[in-house]
Amino acid sequence: MTVFSFFYQGFRFSIYHYSFILWLVLGLARLFLYWKYIPLILSKKTALIVNESFIYDLADGIKYNWKDIRSVEEENAYLYIKLNNSDEYLANIQTPLKRFFKSIISEPFKINIDMIKVNANVLLEILDDYSMQAEEMEHSGSPSIITNP
Q: Do 19 and 84 lie in a common domain?
């Protein structure tokens, strides 16, 4: 309807005449938010690696070691990672502008799981299992062997 109303000059409300601009702005905003996932999608690479040593977010290029993670919470299709010493991770960010923006927001380390093909509940269970294994490894001093069922 937007296309037809754009070309029909006698359309009653001129505000609808420019409704395509709203859709264009929304599309560009989504592209801006998801631009870092596009190369991963096109090359069919994984976006998140989780094991007993770390969580590796390939989209942002940040590897979170379990020993540095205080908690991981899921809310609104995002994993919020709270770190014991977030300044160390902020210092490792190469781009100054990205480092600045991450330093001013309240939860700088988050992973968008909306772009990852996984059930959020299953991912949280996996994260919980690996965090327990990481604690056991830290206390025992020996690496554990993980087998997939």
A: no
Structure confidence by residue, pLDDT tens digits, 41-50:
888 888 889 9
Q: How many other β-carbons are positioned within 10 Å of the β-carbon of residue 115? A: 17
What is each CA distance from 56 to 6, 63, 121, 138, in whole angstroms? 47, 4, 19, 19
pLDDT tens track for 135-149: 888 777 554 444 333
Residues 50 and 32 in one domain: no
14: left (phi over 0), alpha (psi -120 to 50) or beta: alpha
Tell me, rounded to whole angstroms, the distance of Cα 26 from its chain centroid. 19
Do 52 and 77 belong to one domain? yes
Contact 60, 92 (CB under 8 A): no
pTM of the model: 0.69
Residue 134 has pLDDT above 70, yes or no: yes
